[in-house]
């Protein structure tokens, strides 16, 4: 169980996302999770060992480290990524619920049901309409909120995004104000700025997706109202072609292993 | 053998669970297991090395660490995850037993081996009670062993061979405390989910039986 399992879960949701949603997912996995696992964890790996204070007083280093780093950058990022990925599960559960209902209809032999077999239901991609639209939009909203909260927490805890080389510490039992030196401050600053930049891009993508969904919703409503005025008996069938340009992303998606969509 | 085994086990249970049960599985996977592996494990990785006492006396640090941490937080956390997931095996075994029975008798004994009725419902309810029970037990254990969920910066130790009362400093106490509170919060959430599922199932099946009896009377 690791980030790969999260990838499997979210990969299943990807099928039902908009194009922007799929781009967001790609950015999340390649520029955030992969960077975290492959690079950032190594940079922060020796952080307490190589945190050196100019004193022989036992305990001073521990206390100063704890004072300046209440929660390590790397743990904060891991939590941020977990929280930001979680709202997609809401969508996965809703899709699973819809599939379950369709399977029940199919088994009952409902003539309204247009599927030929259970496999087709399993493979079917649902359009984002009705209650699924609300679930999807709420999930994007929560994603935005979590991203913003974590970015603010970061800024608040570390007074900005720069990692200083030297910190002055006077917490007990340090005898006086002692100089403490952080290991690899420049590398850490570079990675921090990178992660913040990618977070900002993700926020922008989420805002764009939200605007797109809202625009689609209002357009659909005005179309319906317009059709109802001119042809009250005409059945409005909508065909949405959303994701041709991202087919190669959707090709790599698989159904969730955990059975959310079974 | 690693956490992947637990994943497979819980994925197997997911098939026979209710909606709330599936939410419980998601919470356990994402907010407990993934957080444990991706973040928490590394915080406690060098806890013994980084535990420092203000004394040169050999053996004092070891003895003090052992005195204050009889079982490390992270080991208790891992045990809790394993023990809390184990009752789900009861359901899996029961379904396997039903399928085996059908195979041995070569006839259809049940409407569906995975359907939650009769004996399987009892097993499911027992597994829910056990899960909640174990969660509570571990939370109480955490609380009693460590005097609450706080991790102090400094502990005073006077166990032999330490010559006097010495100051010992724990590494990353704030970070450990944050993750302990996170563990407590997710445990409580899981207890709430288990109890809601229990209530929902008892209510649903009582209603079913009442309606059946009511229909029989009217006939």
UniProtKB/TrEMBL annotation, chain A:
Q: Is Zinc-finger there in the keyword field?
A: no
Bilayer topology: Multi-pass membrane protein
* Record keywords, A-Z: Cell junction, Cell membrane, Gap junction, Hearing, Membrane, Transmembrane, Transmembrane helix
* InterPro entries, per database record: Connexin (IPR000500), Connexin_CCC (IPR019570), Connexin_CS (IPR017990), Connexin_N (IPR013092), Connexin_N_sf (IPR038359)
Origin, by domain of life? Eukaryota
Q: Start and end of every Connexin cysteine-rich domain?
A: 146-213
GO CC terms: connexin complex
List where the protein spans the membrane: 23-40, 77-97, 132-158, 191-215
Q: Which GO terms describe its biological process?
A: cell-cell signaling; gap junction-mediated intercellular transport; sensory perception of sound
**GO MF:** gap junction channel activity
What is the predominant subcellular site recorded for this chain? Answer: other
Spell out the family assignment given in the record's similarity comment: Belongs to the connexin family.
Q: What does this protein do?
A: One gap junction consists of a cluster of closely packed pairs of transmembrane channels, the connexons, through which materials of low MW diffuse from one cell to a neighboring cell.
Q: Self-association or partners: how does it assemble?
A: A connexon is composed of a hexamer of connexins.
What this protein is called in its record is Gap junction protein
Species in which this protein is naturally found: Piaya cayana
From TrEMBL, chain B:
Superkingdom, natural source: Eukaryota
Q: Connexin N-terminal domain location, by residue?
A: 42-75
Record bears the keyword Membrane: yes
Which PROSITE patterns did the record assign?
CONNEXINS_2
Q: Name one GO biological process term.
A: cell-cell signaling
Q: Which compartment or compartments is the protein found in?
A: Cell junction, Gap junction; Cell membrane
Gene3D superfamilies referenced in this protein's UniProt entry, alphabetically: Gap junction channel protein cysteine-rich domain
Keyword annotations for this protein, in alphabetical order, are: Cell junction, Cell membrane, Gap junction, Membrane, Transmembrane, Transmembrane helix
Q: Entry's SMART domains?
A: CNX, Connexin_CCC
Q: Name one GO molecular function term.
A: gap junction channel activity
Q: Does the keyword Phosphoprotein apply?
A: no
Gene Ontology cellular component list: connexin complex
Occurrences of domain Connexin cysteine-rich (ranges)? 134-201
Q: Which spans are transmembrane here?
A: 20-39, 77-97, 118-143, 178-203
UniProt-listed PANTHER family: CONNEXIN (PTHR11984), GAP JUNCTION BETA-7 PROTEIN (PTHR11984:SF26)
> What is the protein's quaternary organization?
A connexon is composed of a hexamer of connexins.
Q: What does this protein do?
A: One gap junction consists of a cluster of closely packed pairs of transmembrane channels, the connexons, through which materials of low MW diffuse from one cell to a neighboring cell.
Q: What is this protein called?
A: Gap junction protein
| Species annotation | Piaya cayana
């Amino acid at each position: 169980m690791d980030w790969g399992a999260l990838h499997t879960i979210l990969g299943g949701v990807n099928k039902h996302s908009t194009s922007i949603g799929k781009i967001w997912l790609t950015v999340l996995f390649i520029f955030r999770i992969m960077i975290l696992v492959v690079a950032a964890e190594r940079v922060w790996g020796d952080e307490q060992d190589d945190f050196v204070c100019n004193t022989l007083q036992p305990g001073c280093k521990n206390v100063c480290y704890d004072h300046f780093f209440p929660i390590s950058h790397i743990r904060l990022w891991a939590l941020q990524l977990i929280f930001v990925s979680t709202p997609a599960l809401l969508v996965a559960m809703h899709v699973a619920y819809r599939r379950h209902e369709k399977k029940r209809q199919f088994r009952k032999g409902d003539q309204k049901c247009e599927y030929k077999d259970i496999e087709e239901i399993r493979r079917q991609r649902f359009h984002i309409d009705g209650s699924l639209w609300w679930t999807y939009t709420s999930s994007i909203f929560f994603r935005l909120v979590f991203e913003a909260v974590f970015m603010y927490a970061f800024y608040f805890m570390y007074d900005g995004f720069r990692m200083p080389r030297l910190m002055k510490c006077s917490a007990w039992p340090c005898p006086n104000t002692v100089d403490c030196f952080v290991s690899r401050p420049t590398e850490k600053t570079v990675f921090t700025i990178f992660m913040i930049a990618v977070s900002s891009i993700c926020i922008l993508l989420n805002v764009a997706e939200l605007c797109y969904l809202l625009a689609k919703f209002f357009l659909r409503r005005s179309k319906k109202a317009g059709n109802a005025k001119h042809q009250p008996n005409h059945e409005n069938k909508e065909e949405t072609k959303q994701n041709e340009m991202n087919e190669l992303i959707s090709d790599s998606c698989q159904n969730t292993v955990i059975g959310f969509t079974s | 053998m690693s956490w992947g085994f637990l994943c497979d086990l819980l994925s197997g249970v997911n098939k026979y669970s209710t909606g709330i049960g599936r939410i419980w599985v998601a919470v356990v996977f994402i907010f407990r297991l993934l957080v444990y592996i991706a973040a928490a494990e590394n915080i406690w990785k060098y806890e013994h090395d980084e535990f420092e006492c203000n004394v040169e006396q050999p053996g004092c640090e070891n003895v003090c660490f052992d005195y204050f941490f009889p079982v490390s937080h992270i080991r208790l956390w891992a045990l809790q995850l394993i023990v809390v997931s184990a009752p789900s095996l009861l359901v899996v075994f029961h379904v396997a037993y039903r399928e085996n029975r059908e195979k041995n008798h070569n006839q259809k004994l049940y409407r569906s081996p995975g359907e939650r009725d009769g004996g399987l419902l009892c097993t499911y309810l027992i597994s829910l009670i056990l899960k909640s029970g174990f969660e509570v037990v571990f939370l109480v254990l955490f609380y009693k062993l460590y005097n609450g969920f706080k991790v102090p910066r400094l502990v005073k130790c006077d166990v032999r061979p330490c010559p006097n009362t010495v100051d010992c400093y724990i590494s990353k106490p704030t970070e450990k405390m944050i993750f302990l509170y996170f563990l407590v919060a997710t445990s409580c959430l899981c207890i709430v989910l288990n109890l809601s599922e229990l209530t929902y199932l008892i209510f649903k099946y009582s209603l079913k039986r009442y309606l059946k009896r009511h229909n029989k009377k009217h006939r």
